[in-house]
Amino acid sequence: MIPLKLQLENFMSYGKGVPPLPLSDMRLACLSGDNGNGKSAILDAITWVLFGETRAPREDDVIRLGAPSCSVMLDFQLGETKYRVTKRRDRKGTSPIWSLAAWQDDDTLRNISDGRETKGKLEGLLRLNYEMFLATAYLAQGRADIFARAKPTERKQIVADILDLSRYDELEKRARETQREARERRSAAESQLTLIDEELQDKDRIDAELESAEALLADAAAQLTQLQLARDSAHLAFEECQNNANLARDWDEKLRELEQDHAIALRDSEALRKRIAAAEAILTRRPEIEKQEREAAALEQRLNVLQSQVDEATALYREREQLTEQIQRARTELDRELYRVTREVQDLHEEAKELERYEAERSTTEAEIASYGDPEAKRRDAEAERAKADEAFTELKAQRNTAKAEQERLEKRLSALTGSDSSQCEFCGQPLTPKARQAAIVEAETALEANGEYQAQLGAQGRDAKRLADEWRAFSEQALTDSRTVAQLVNRNAHAQQEALRIRTRLEQLPNRERQREKLSQQLESGEFARDAQERVMALAAHLEKLERSQEELRALRQQASTYRELPHERARLTQAEGILLEEPVRLSELETRAQSLATKIEKARPRVEEMRQRAANLPLLRQSLTEAEGALRYQNDATNQAHTRIGRLKAERDRLQARLTERTKIESDRVAASRDELLYAELTAAFGKKGVQALIIENALPEIQEETNRLLGRMTSGAMRVTFETHREARTKSASPIETLDIIIEDDLGTRAYEMYSGGEAFRVNLALRVALSKMLARRAGAPLQTLILDEGFGTQDPRGREAIADALEAIAEEFELILVITHIEELKDRFPTRIEITKGPDGSRFSLN
C-alpha cells in the first residue's frame, strides 16, 4: 500500500480549509514541528480512515473541539490500482460514513463498499488489520515495543498473521469438525448395531411360531368347509318354510279384506233402506208446505211497501241530523272567532305595557355602552406592550442559556485542570507547565464567578420582564372581556328597539279588533247564523210525524214473517226426498247382490288359510337351527381370519428381521469407515494446529526475520548487538518435554541480557530492526501489499551516534520501501531527510508545509 494524498477536515487539531498533503513523490520524509502541533494526528488520520482505530480513547475525540463533525480522505495505490477511502463522523452519535472506491481507466471512481463492510473490505485488500499494522509497519507513540514486549504466544500470533497461517486454523477447525462428525457417525452406528443384535435374538422364535400357526390354519380351514355345508342345508329348509309362512300371511290378509268388504256392503244396505223410508215420510207433507209458501209471498209484498216508507223516514232523519250539526258548527265557529278576537285585543293591551319596558331598557343599555368607551383599542395597545415584554423575556432567557453553557464548559475545563498534573493540556493538546496550569485554573475560577453574577443579573431582568408581560396580558384579557360585554349590550339594545317597533305596528290594529268583537257578540245573542238550515229543520218535523206510524206496522209484520223462516228448508227436503225415491232403490238392489257374493268367497277362502298356517308351523325351529349354524360358521371364520392375521404378522416380522440383518452388514461397514475417518481427522487436526504445520512454518520463517533483524541492527550498532529467537526452552522438571515458546534473546559486547535491561536507545534500535524485518517479511512471505514504513518515536532516546546510525539505516532501506515517514523534532536530523513536512499550529488549527 502506497499513500498518494491525504485530506483532513476538523480532524483532531486540524481545522477546516486544510489543503491536501501530497505523498506520491516522497520516498523518505520526516514530519517535524513542536510537540502538540499535530504531527501524530496525520498518522492517526491514516489509521482511522484505513482501520477505524486511533490513539484516542473515544470515537468523538477525533473531532476537533467545537466542530460538529470531521472527515478524512486518503488516496493510495495497491498494485496497479488506485483507491480512494473516505470516512466522516458526526457528534450526533450516528454511524460514521465510510466508503471505498477505485479509480477507473477514464479517471472516474467506481464505488466498492459503504458503511460497516468497508472495514472488512480494506483489511482484505491490505491483508492486515490495525494490530498487525502497528506490529509491523507503524511504530506509533508508546507502541514501538509492541512486538518485543509481547508474550511468546502473542509474538507467534503476529508472525502467524504475517504468514497468513489463519488458513491452517480454518483447516484445523474443519478437520476437528469432520472428526467430531465421524465420531458421532461411529457412535450412532454402534448404537444401531446394539439395537439390531437385540432384535435378531427373536428370529428363531418367530420361525417356530410361524410353522405352528400355519398348521393350525390348515385344521381351521377343514372345519370351516364342513360348517359351510351345514349352514347351506339349514338355510334351504328355512327358506321353504318361510315361503309357506308368507303365503299363509297373504291368504289371511285376503280373507280379512273380504270380511271387511262384506261388512261394509251390509252396513250400506241398511243405511240406504232407512233413507228411502225417511223420504217417503217427507212426501206426505207436500200440501201443507205449499199452503205456507202462498201465505209467505203475500206477507213479503206488504213488507216491501212499508220498508220503502221507513227508508224515506231514515233519509229525512239523517238530513235533519246533518242540518242540526251544520247549525251547531256555525255557532261553534262564531264562538271561536269571538274568542280569538277577544284574546287578540287582550294581547294588544299587554303588548302596550311591554312597549314601555323596552323603551326603558333602551335608555339603560345606551348609557352602559357609553361607559365602556373603546375596549378593542385598549386591547390592541395591551397586546403590543405584552409582545414587547415577551420578546425581552425570550432574549434574556437565550442569553441565560448561553451563559449556562459557558458555565458548563468552564466547569469541565476547571475539573480537567485540577484533576490532572499532565504536562499537556487535556483540551487543546498544547504543552502546559505547572505555573501555566495554575494560571489557567485562576482564570477559569474568575470566569466562573463572573458568569454566576451575570446569570443572576439576567435572572432578575427576566423575572421583571415576565411580571410586566403577565400584567399586560391580564389587562388585555380584561379589555377582551369588556369588548364582549359591549357586544352583548349592543345586541340587547338592538333587540329592544326592534321589539318596540313591532309592538307599535301591532297597536295600530286595536280599534278594528274591538269593533269586530262587539259585532260577533250581537250575532250570537240574536241567533243570526245558518238561517236556511234552521227553517228546513222546522219543515221536516211535521212530515216525520206521519212516517213514524208506518214504522210501527213494519215491526209487527216482521214478527209475523219470522214464523215462515224454516219454509225454504222444508221445500229443499221435499225436493231431495223426491230424488231419493227416484234413484236409491236401484242402488239398494246392487248392494244386496254384492254382499251375497262376498259371503260366498269368504266361505271358500277359510280352508285355504288354515292349510297354509299348518305348513308354516315349524318356522321358529328352523330359524333357530339356521341361527346356530351361522353362529358356528362365523366363529370358525373369525378363528381362521385370526390365524391368517397372525401368520401375516409373523411373516412381516420375519421379513423385517431379515432386512435388519442386511442393514446390519451395511451399518457395520459404515462403523468401520467412521472409525477410520475419526482416526485420520484426529491426526489432521493435530497436524493443522498451532503445534503442527504452523509451528514448522514459523520455525522456518524465524531465521529469515532473525537474519534481517541482525543485518539492520549491525548497521545501527556497528555490529555490537544481535538478537536470537528461541522456539523451545527446557521445562522446570527434567522428565517433562521441552516447552514451545518464542523468546527474543539480545546480546551485546557485555553478554546476554533481558530486553528490559537495555537502555531506551538500545531498546529502540532493537525494536526498529525487528519491525523493519517483520515489515519486509510481510511483503515477501504473506503477500501483503505493504510498501510503507512509519516511525512516530524513538530518536529522542538516542545519543548523537545512535541517531546518526538510525538515520543511516533508514537511508539504506529507503529503496526497499515506496514511502518511509519519520516523526521528529530534533533539528540536526531534519536535514538528513530529502523531504520535510513542517507542522505548525495557529488559531485556526494545525497546518503543514513542504520543504
Keywords:
Helix Hairpins; Rossmann fold; 17 helices; six-stranded mixed sheet; 70% helix; flat; six-stranded antiparallel sheet
Strand count: 15
Mean pLDDT, as a whole number? 81
Instruction: Supply the CATH architecture of the domain at 311-396 and 450-565.
Output: Orthogonal Bundle
Strand proportion, as a percent range, falls in 5-15%
Residues in helices, as a percent range: 55-70%
Give the CATH class of the domain at 311-396 and 450-565. Mainly Alpha
Shape: flat
Largest sheet: 6 strands, antiparallel
* Termini separation: 24 Å
Rg value: 67 Å
Organism: Armatimonas rosea
GO molecular function: ATP hydrolysis activity; exonuclease activity
Keywords: Coiled coil, Exonuclease, Hydrolase, Nuclease
Coiled coil: 530-567
Would you write up a description of this structure?
Pfam families: AAA_23, SbcC_Walker_B. One of its GO terms (molecular function) is ATP hydrolysis activity. Heterodimer of SbcC and SbcD. Keywords: Coiled coil, Exonuclease, Hydrolase, Nuclease. Residues 530-567 form a coiled coil. With 851 residues, the protein is an alpha/beta fold. Among the domains are: 1-127 and 789-851, P-loop containing nucleotide triphosphate hydrolases (Rossmann fold, 3-Layer(aba) Sandwich), CATH 3.40.50.300; 152-164 and 691-784, Rossmann fold (3-Layer(aba) Sandwich), CATH 3.40.50.300; 311-396 and 450-565, Helix Hairpins, CATH 1.10.287. Helix content is 70%, strand content 11%. The chain is built from 17 helices and 15 strands. It has helices at residues 39-51, 117-126, 130-136, 152-162, 166-200, 203-283, 286-372, 375-418, 434-507, 510-526, 531-561, 567-615, 619-688, 693-717, 760-780, 800-813, 827-830; strands at 2-9, 21-22, 28-32, 69-78, 81-90, 97-103, 109-114, 138-139, 722-729, 739-748, 751-753, 788-791, 819-823, 835-842, 845-850. A six-stranded antiparallel beta sheet has the order 2-1-4-5-6-7, with helices on one face. It has a six-stranded mixed beta sheet with strand order 8-12-13-3-14-15, with helices on both faces. A hairpin with a 2-residue loop joins strand 10 and strand 11 (751-753). Helix 7 crosses helix 9 (434-507), helix 7 (286-372) crosses helix 12 (567-615) and helix 14 (693-717) crosses helix 16 (800-813). The model has no long low-confidence stretch (mean pLDDT 81).
